[in-house]
Amino acid sequence: LKLGIMASGNGSNFEAVAQAIAKGQINAQIQVLIYNNPSAQAPIRAANRGVEAVLLNHRDYNSREAFDEKIVHTLRQYDVELVIMAGWMRLVTPVLIDAFPDKIINIHPSLLPSFKGVNAVEQALAAGVKITGCTVHLVCLEVDSGSILIQAAVPVLPNDTPETLHARIQLQEHQILPQAIALAAQR
Ligand code: GRF
């Protein structure tokens, strides 16, 4: 299965997927990393893994649709079959979603449908839940709302800060994102 990964930040989930492929746990290849933020760490990880990274800066486009058109063009250029949003911090439009029907997945740091949107970890702390987690789901137009593929639960501990809780959630993200891709690659 040919993968395209989209990331805006640190890229630890990119790393987890690359590692699972290297270990033979996923029957797939990462064709390209697309990143939108010039200071993202993800492209450094890509370089270390020998994966091509393409910077598409949303600030260079007049509309979300024009930006998504460029993304679709790039994904097609690299022959991508499954698109993975791993910390992609931009809203997407039908231009992207309709180009890859049911072939775009996202990782979100909460047990959806709780705590959609940004600051999901802070939202969980503010709500006082004792269990939160992470979700891999299909991407649809409504943010963080597509069909759920895999979830993992994570305890909230008494002295958690957003940072300590997010770190604990990320350990689980790094398990379930590769698992979801492995399942997709078996089909
Ligand atoms: C993850 O927590 C993911 O759930 C959220 O953004 C974060 C990305 O982390 N959508 P990383 O860049 O993969 O380290």
UniProtKB/TrEMBL annotation:
Pfam families xrefs: Formyl_trans_N
Keyword NADP in record: no
Enzyme Commission numbers on file: 2.1.2.2
Catalyses which reaction(s): N(1)-(5-phospho-beta-D-ribosyl)glycinamide + (6R)-10-formyltetrahydrofolate = N(2)-formyl-N(1)-(5-phospho-beta-D-ribosyl)glycinamide + (6S)-5,6,7,8-tetrahydrofolate + H(+)
This protein's UniProt keywords: Purine biosynthesis, Transferase
Catalytic-site annotation from UniProt: 108
InterPro entries linked to this entry: Formyl_transf_N, Formyl_transf_N_sf, GART
MF (Gene Ontology): phosphoribosylglycinamide formyltransferase activity
Keyword Metal-binding included in the entry's annotation: no
Pathway: Purine metabolism; IMP biosynthesis via de novo pathway; N(2)-formyl-N(1)-(5-phospho-D-ribosyl)glycinamide from N(1)-(5-phospho-D-ribosyl)glycinamide (10-formyl THF route): step 1/1
Domain of life: Bacteria
Binding annotation for N(1)-(5-phospho-beta-D-ribosyl)glycinamide: 11-13
Site (Raises pKa of active site His): 144
Residues in Formyl transferase N-terminal domain copies: 3-181
Binding positions for (6R)-10-formyltetrahydrofolate per the UniProt entry: 64, 89-92, 106
GO BP field: 'de novo' IMP biosynthetic process
Physiological role: Catalyzes the transfer of a formyl group from 10-formyltetrahydrofolate to 5-phospho-ribosyl-glycinamide (GAR), producing 5-phospho-ribosyl-N-formylglycinamide (FGAR) and tetrahydrofolate.
PANTHER family, per database record: PHOSPHORIBOSYLGLYCINAMIDE FORMYLTRANSFERASE
HAMAP family: PurN (MF_01930)
Alphabetical list of NCBIfam families matching this protein: PurN
Similarity remark: Belongs to the GART family.
Protein name: Phosphoribosylglycinamide formyltransferase
Species this chain originates from: Halotia branconii CENA392
The gene coding this protein: purN
